[in-house]
Design a protein that fits this description.
- By secondary structure, the chain is α/β, with parallel strands linked by helices.
- The chain folds into two domains: 2-207, 3-Layer(aba) Sandwich (Rossmann fold); 296-411, NAD(P)-binding Rossmann-like Domain (Rossmann fold, 3-Layer(aba) Sandwich), CATH 3.40.50.
- The chain is built from 15 helices and 13 strands.
- The protein has helices at 9-20, 32-39, 50-57, 95-107, 126-136, 160-165, 177-187, 199-230, 235-242, 270-283, 289-312, 337-347, 361-368, 378-383, 395-399; strands spanning 2-5, 25-28, 62-65, 77-80, 114-118, 146-150, 170-173, 194-197, 319-322, 353-356, 373-374, 387-390, 408-411.
- It has a six-stranded parallel β-sheet with strand order 3-2-1-4-5-6, sandwiched between helices. A five-stranded parallel β-sheet has the order 11-10-9-12-13. A two-stranded parallel sheet has the order 7-8.
- β12 (387-390), α15 (395-399) and β13 form a beta-alpha-beta unit.
- α1 (9-20) packs across α3.
- The longest helix has 32 residues, at 199-230.
Length: 416
């Protein structure tokens, strides 16, 4: 049996989703009015399709219990779906989550070997730094007699049922083979890829997702204001035409390549067009905060990488920089991140630098005239180095990553 504690949007959808797939599920909520409503077949909030699913499963695969202790003996997996509201400073209130954990731990014994799956949204590192110590202070040992797992939810209000029953992916933060095996079986009926990752990673993905969509909404709003200030722009048509860009489509869509970390963007278009639009916005009396921050972050990311690299290597170590063009497939070195990275290294005393690019060595040398050694091949550059810095992810580098064995590698494109 599966237990679900907390029967709000996420919890009730989760409970009914497993019920619909044939699992026996008991649901618990400390709000008596809500529990009574669900027990009588009424959803205490509006969510499309959920009412029919509730009445189909109520008393058959789905059962309301007053407390977890009533179903503890028969339950192997417990999902915690309680609220974790944020205070004014943005810190999460874990009161409800800790109370739910306490109710579980009081009803089980160390020899019971339960799996506790946290679905409540918590900041990255919360499970490791707060939840696991919480349970271990009460005599349990994570991975031994109890298993703490994090399974983020990606349910949108209004489409929660469809999102749960037909997930695009299932992410599970977990350590240990036993909970992986059990949860793989539990999620098998959902016919979605299951990704087992670290606890911190599973927590982070939820915030990565939500903050990205929030950023898109605010970016769109800022751009609409700029358009309005300039005047003569059909904002609705402009955005609809923007949506026709072929990079939005495909599996995976090419736009995914832009939603990926690196050492910054360059080339002839993005830096220039951003600065032109910022200037135009200033002329119209509007402070384009997001656009200005985009430019600033593109500068700061190079400093982030330089600080990371110089903390880990010494000035005497020979370095190979792979990739001089601003992106693979071109010899264009305008605004290329490689220039800033190399220049900042030299300013900090790193002068044993060899560079290689499949196409851009000549144009880089002509454009920037830095005191560099250039190699005719990746193999030659790497053989002369102890440290390898990848600033542009040419396929050649990925195909020959075996050459990087026994080297200190900084992959500034996260491609290896």
């Amino acid at each position: 049996m599966i237990a679900v504690i907390g029967l709000g949007y996420v919890g009730l959808t989760t409970a009914l989703g497993f019920s619909e797939k044939g699992f026996k599920v008991c649901g618990i909520d400390n709000n008596k009015e809500k529990s009574d409503s669900i027990s009588s077949g009424r959803i205490p909030f509006f969510e499309e399709n959920l009412s029919g699913i509730l009445n189909k499963n109520l008393g058959k695969n789905f059962f309301i219990k007053k407390s977890f202790s009533e179903c503890a003996a028969d339950t192997e997996i417990i999902f915690l779906c309680v609220e974790t509201p944020a205070d004014r400073d943005g810190a999460p209130d874990l009161t409800y989550l800790e109370a739910a954990l306490e109710s579980v731990l009081q009803a089980v014994k160390p020899q019971d070997n339960k799996i506790i799956v946290i679905k409540s949204t918590v900041p990255p590192s919360t499970t490791v730094k707060k939840i696991i110590p919480f349970i271990e202070k009460r005599g349990f040992k994570n991975g031994k007699n109890i298993h703490i797992v994090y399974n983020p939810e990606f349910l949108r209000e209004g489409t929660a049922w469809e999102d749960f029953i037909n997930p695009d992916r299932i992410i599970i933060g977990v350590d240990g083979k036993y909970p992986k095996r059990i949860l793989n079986e539990v999620f098998e009926p959902f016919n979605a890829e299951v990704y087992f990752v670290s606890l911190n990673t599973s927590e982070f993905v939820k915030y990565l997702s939500n903050s990205f969509f929030a950023a898109l909404l605010s970016y769109s709003n800022e751009m609409s204001v700029i358009a309005d200030k300039i005047g003569g722009i059909d904002i609705k048509s402009a955005f609809e035409l923007f949506h026709k860009d072929k990079r939005w489509f495909g599996t995976p869509a090419a736009v995914c390549g832009y939603v990926y970390p690196s050492c910054g963007f360059g080339g002839s278009c993005l830096p220039k067009d951003l600065n032109v639009l910022i200037n135009k916005s200033d002329e119209c009396g509007y402070n384009a905060k997001i656009l200005k921050n985009i430019v600033e972050i593109n500068r700061e990311i190079k400093t982030f990488w330089i600080n990371k690299i110089t903390r880990e290597i010494t000035t005497g170590q020979p370095i190979a920089v792979l990739g001089l063009s601003f992106k693979p497939g071109t010899e264009d070195v305008r605004e290329t991140p490689a220039y800033t990275i190399i220049k900042m290294l030299m300013e900090r005393g790193y002068n044993k630098i060899t560079a290689y690019d499949p196409k851009a060595c000549k144009s880089f040398d002509k454009t920037y005239n830095l005191p560099l050694n250039y190699s005719v091949s990746m193999e030659d550059a790497v053989s002369k180095s102890e440290v390898v810095i990848i600033t542009s992810a040419w396929q050649e580098f990925l195909d020959n990553k075996d050459l990087l064995k026994n080297k200190t590698v900084f992959d500034l494109r996260y491609k290896l």
